Amino acid sequence: MDISHLPPSLQVLWTSKQHHRRGPRPALTLDAVVGAAIDIADADGLGAVSMSRVAERLGFTPMSLYRYVKSKDELLLLMADAANEAPPSPPATDDWREAIEQWARLVFATFRRHPWLLQVPVNGPPAGPSQLRWMEAGLQNLAGTGLHEGRKLQIIQLLHGYVRGEAQLSNDLAHPDPAESTAGQYGAIIRTVTAPETHPALTRMLSSGLLDGPTEYDEDIDFGFGLGTILDGVALLVDREGFHG
Fold first, then answer.
1. pTM higher than the cut 0.70
2. Which ranges does the entry annotate as DNA-binding region (predicted)?
């Protein structure tokens, strides 16, 4: 596979998949470097990852790492690709909705397992090895809808955008700034700064007591409601545009 014409970042990702050394297994490998960096990011956040910290974890000098990665930016690319583990095989079901819901929940679980992935910039459409595996799996799950290829791609983009946004929200709510936290006080705070004359809809909401409950993110309630609503819309689209032969 000739990847010389690809952008530099994609060359890094696809070259790593072809990275095989002949002879005895070396004491240090690219997979070990990337794995150690992921462990550090999972434990202490992306800001804790440095070449020196990774080298210390592996018991090598920082300079020895540069045989495998040229810079921290390159390491970050490889970390993001490796953390997006291969998706499972499509579920054994003809129900496209069940299949794509499972796909979306697995993407969400990946962000929850590696929240630092949310800090990795999105610089373009999916083109890395792991990104394309997940994209392929999502498209396969929609194969039975009868929708044209453009619609399937739009649905995948919509779902991934929703999942990423909800993962960001859940992570932010799980780690609030103590000085700014509204835990257990949200309803009281809103009552302080609103009035029936200026915020009649919020006043009705306050009267219901819904804003006096816990504000923690609930995956089953919060994530599940949004995902289900999106898939309800997709189902209507399938009924209207899908091929029914």
1. yes
2. 50-69
Average pLDDT value for residue range 147-170: 96
Range of the domain at 14: 8-84
The whole-angstrom separation of Cα 109 and Cα 164 is 10
User: How many whole angstroms from its chain centre is CA 163?
Assistant: 7
The domain boundary, picked from 17, 52, 84, lies at 84
159 and 231 Cβ atoms separated by less than 8 Å: no
SS3 track for 185-202: CHHHHHHHHCCCCCCHHH
**Which CATH number characterizes residue 161's domain?**
1.10.357.10
Which tokens is 109 given?
């679980």
Question: What confidence tens digit (pLDDT) does each residue in 115-141 have?
Answer: 999 998 888 888 889 999 999 999 999
Number of Cβ within a 10 Å radius of residue 16:
20
Residue 154 confidence (pLDDT) above 80: yes
